[in-house]
Amino acid sequence: MSEKNIVDFWFDPACPWAWMTSRWIGEVEKVRDIETEWHVMSLAILNEGNDDSAEHQENMARLRGPVRVVTAAAELHGSEYIKRLYDAMGTRIHPGGNKDFDDVIAQSLEEVGLPAELAGYATSEEFDSPLQASHDKGISMVGEDVGTPVVAFNGTAFFGPVMTPAPKGEEAGKVWDGAVLLAGYPGFYELKRTRNEGPIFD
Question: In 3D, which of 2, 98, 190 has the Cα closest to residue 108?
């Protein structure tokens, strides 16, 4: 019997590339013996200090809403809601094209059976400490010059993989096999090319 592979996945619900990678991991779960743990990270934290314009700051404040609500749900109702809310929010934001995060949050909380009052945490700093801690843990495994998602394969973490569309079925499994093989080599750090296509949601 093969040994179960452990995946740690850090995401921000608003990131389309993290969404694509998460759909791939979902496909891998169907064809490989893996166990996935889901963690939050924040695009707003990643972009702190990059742009002091009012427009940028306003956008970063808006981006904090969904991930703050996921964090609050996990703290108050259990970590099992991290993935449930991610699926609900991500489906609306990415393939659904809904950029009204207040609406996304309200609908997602209702879908997963959580109290509507949790939406208030979108603008609250109450659970920013555990959000920061989760973000920092992911970043500490890969370094500062990365984005979201951060994925750890049996403890070795990378930014990405970034792909579009997300592979399905056995093809997803083969991509997984390759990622695990690369992650298993201690000296492997980076494999990258310029993206010339946006995320394809299917």
Answer: 98
CA distances from 96 to 88, 91, 99, 183, 201 (A): 10, 6, 9, 33, 9
Q: Write down the pTM of the prediction.
A: 0.92
Length of the chain as a residue count: 202
pLDDT in tens, the chain (202 residues): 457 889 999 999 999 999 999 999 999 999 999 999 999 999 999 888 777 777 867 888 889 999 999 999 999 999 999 999 999 999 999 999 999 999 999 999 999 999 999 999 999 999 999 999 999 999 999 987 788 999 999 889 999 899 999 999 999 999 999 999 998 898 998 888 888 888 988 8
Residues 77 and 109 sit within 8 Å (Cβ to Cβ)? no
Q: CA separation (Å) from 107 to 13, 96, 115, 119, 164?
A: 14, 12, 11, 10, 27
CA nearest neighbour of 91 among 13, 181, 35, 152: 13
Tell me the C-alpha distance between 125 and 111, whole Å: 24
Q: Do the beta carbons of residue 149 and residue 160 sit within 8 Å? A: yes
